[in-house]
Amino acid sequence: MNEQLINTLKVLLGTHVDAKFRAHGYHWNVEGDDFQQYHELFGEIYEALDAGIDPLAEWIRIFQGYAPFKLSRFVELSIIPETEVSADPMSMAQDLYNILEMVIMAYKNAGTEATAAQEYAIANFFADQQGVAQKFCWQLRVSLKEEMD
Question: What is the C-alpha to C-alpha distance for residues 66 and 79, in angstroms, rounded to an integer?
Answer without folding.
Answer: 20
